[in-house]
Structure of KKCC1 kinase:
Amino acid sequence: SPTNAVDGGIDTCCKDTQTELAERVAAIDVAVGPDRSDQNGEDNTEENDTVFSDNIKDIQRNGVNSDMGMNELLPSQRPEDAHCRHVPKRPLTRPVLSSRKLSLQERSSGGYLASSNTPGYGPYATGPSPRIMRRPTIESNRVSISDSEDCVQLNQYKLQSEIGKGSYGVVKLAYNENDDKYYAMKVLSKKKLLKQYGFPRRPPPRGSKTSSGEQPKPMAPLDRVYQEIAILKKLDHVNIVKLVEVLDDPAEDNLYMVTLPHPNRPVMEVPSDHPFSEEQARLYFRDIVLGIEYLHYQKIIHRDIKPSNLLLGDDGHVKIADFGVSNQFEGNDAQLSSTAGTPAFMAPEAISDTGKSFSGKALDVWAMGITLYCFVYGKCPFIDEYILGLHNRIKNKPVEFPEEAQISEELKELILRMLDKNPETRITVPEIKVN
């Protein structure tokens, strides 16, 4: 699998180990999970459990014995209280970069990139695992909540510590009993989102008008959440946050989004007194380039690339998150005319008073340039106490490179080309890849 290739795992031609067979057993329950109700809404749990039990026996006959360790046991085989005090597995380590600077084209099938010979994929595309089929997002419209001694149980998930918080709600660490894995669960209050729409916090987007010349009605926050869900459902890439399940019970106020990676921690907090080395920045930036290339291929403009929206997974790879202001487009590129995203990461054309439309892909490249600058300097290149002053700096001030951090001339040139104030001459994602 791609993960094994990156982390120096076993050869794919080797026989499955007992641990892998156990993982295959755990995956059976996921496969039958979405189909537990028939067309009449009747619960078919008993029938599915019978199929699950038969499949366990089949695999056990093929080599899974009974002397596995606690971490290799199936969820149903562990002590009743094991999940609330479950110790997470040690994070996977990422390989150390060599001193030689490799371009993305040189990263062949020996890494996590798919080979150029893979049918249906480009020479740099990240293909699916050869052994794991893509699983569609599970959508559940019934939520059962109960309290146990140490955890809150929500369907098959045991909710544990809070790992994030915002005006929308909270993000909790969730343990899935069905597949013995941890996830991040975003809990959103639909009432709060509707109330937020009734009291907008910011004026309508600059420069966006309907054909009649009137300002368009801004999208409601709850509608943006559903738009984000629709976008995430169609994405499947190692450098994109994976939406695993959506739980939206009409009778409940809360809406739940279950995602990977579960640590849910940003790759960097800005400002930071501990910027990355050039080699570390290169490692993370490659992931961002591959993720953005995939999004643009799927005709999606992210519009809010920044370090806090780049999560670091257990596999050591960066995952692009937060598609709340993203745009889907038709044709070769999105032609946008409204502002969205974070002010310090906005491109000059997005804050212009001309009202002209601009390239969506070029917007993402600019934000990637600001992000790369943050990686090596720990701060944004354009900073001002006031929003109008910030806009003026973005549109008119040249990029400056502080002397406290020494970076190569090649990296400076790349940053300058990404932060070209003219979107027509700004470097493109394909050009970034060969840099």
